[in-house]
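LAB NOTEBOOK - FOLDING QUEUE
OPERATOR: T.R.
BATCH SIZE: 2
PURPOSE: Compare the predicted structure-token outputs for two unrelated chains run back to back under identical settings.
PRIORITY: normal
REVIEWER: second-year student, initials M.K.

ITEM 1
FIELD SEQUENCE / FIELD STRUCTURE:
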Amino acid sequence: MRLALFQPEIAGNVGAVLRLAACLGAGVDLIEPMGFPWSDKRRKRSAMDYEDHVEITRHADWDAFSAQVPGRLILFSTKGNTPLHQAGFEPGDTLLFGSESAGAPEHVHQRADLVVRIPLRPVVRSLNLGVSAGIALSEALRQTNGWPE
């Protein structure tokens, strides 16, 4: 199971996702450009010393990432037609999340094998990127019996 972030903009969110992935045993794909330099201290502070415990792959752009996705690509979007509780996950899935301000563009939606939304109350727009990744990865690991031992 992998987490992928499409052009993330906030260093602290990336750090939180890296820590999440390290704790739960998922790899992370970062699709550039990112909205901050890799050396940003906020990313390092959020990830703490967990970065050494996660497989991180940085991709120069969408095309470089898209060409190497080994399994299904599951996009999480507020525009998704499949609610999380109705989505089925497989161990080789890559869970993809759009940028914090713009989400994922149409060509990313078209490439996805499944577009999933986390159901929210209608009076709010969206969750934080790290929170969304945690909810999605938790459900995917539950369905695939992929929790760490």
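ITEM 2
FIELD SEQUENCE / FIELD STRUCTURE:
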Amino acid sequence: MFWTIPTIMTWTRIIAIPLIVGVFYLPLSEPVRNLIATVMFVVFAATDWLDGFLARRLNQTSAFGAFLDPVADKFLVCASLLVLVYLHRADVFVALIIVGREIAISALREWMAQIGASRSVAVHMLGKVKTVVQMIAIPFLLYDGRLLDLIDTNLWGTVLIWIAAVLTIWSMVYYLQKALPEIRARVR
């Protein structure tokens, strides 16, 4: 099931990365670049929910799709964070926390799957909340202006990305605690 509608949608998130980055190299005014990148991020991020919904609805779930979906999410988030650091809209420390956690938990999940203990590090609500906060913070920071003349997206994006960093650490600790009994059993 390599070329199903949900899998193609997942691939679009990976293809979106150079497009979003490329927007900031276009000879356009900064507010226009910001708006285009924000809209693109929101549209592509929405495919994360939609591809899962369609996979279940159309009965097109697959092991490959289950593998590719979180990889695409992590690529999109990490690339966007790098753009935000480059644009001085996100602190490098926040980006290191978020990217580092994604690498560490991905490696932990892979190892736990190899030893047959993947259930102990299954996705938890805390990880989902972290993802939602990131997915709100990133477009706010990409937009970097006033939304509807009311919301300072840079201020709110900065607050939210720091909240996401705290949730990132919290969720990493949670997953490590869940995996610790298995780790101890294997290391002895």
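REVIEWER COMMENT (ITEM 2): The longest strand covers residues 146-147.
FOLLOW-UP: none requested
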